[in-house]
Amino acid sequence: MIAKADLLSCKQDLEAHIGSRVRLKSNGGRKRTIIHEGILESCSLNVFTVRCPVSANYNEHVSFSYVDMLTKTVEVKFADEDDHYESSEYVS
After folding, report:
1. What is the mean pLDDT of residues 24-53?
2. Where are the domains positioned within the chain?
3. Nearest to 39 by CA among 58, 56, 62, 55
4. How would you classify residue 70: left for phi > 0, otherwise alpha for psi between -120 and 50, otherwise beta?
5. Which fold has domain 4-88?
6. d(Cα 32, Cα 80) in Å, to the nearest integer?
7. Phi and psi, residue 25, nearest 5°
8. Mean per-residue pLDDT for 59-82?
């Protein structure tokens, strides 16, 4: 079971990375994986939002809940200075 403290810890960790590059890997169903790369834009009470540039004139926005991270439905990795992505693991 997911505790409220786990959700708060997850949210605080993401808030520390607002404005950072991030890669999200999620289950698209039927053995399909969806990967989004973008900038962590905001963290609200229950969800976080990532802005993914598609072209020069268009940005796609995706949002996931903190529960998605804790249940490993979505995997979040933060980019370091050399564009290597570092995994963020949460264990409940």
Report:
1. 92
2. 4-88
3. 62
4. alpha
5. SH3 type barrels. (2.30.30)
6. 27
7. -125, 120
8. 87
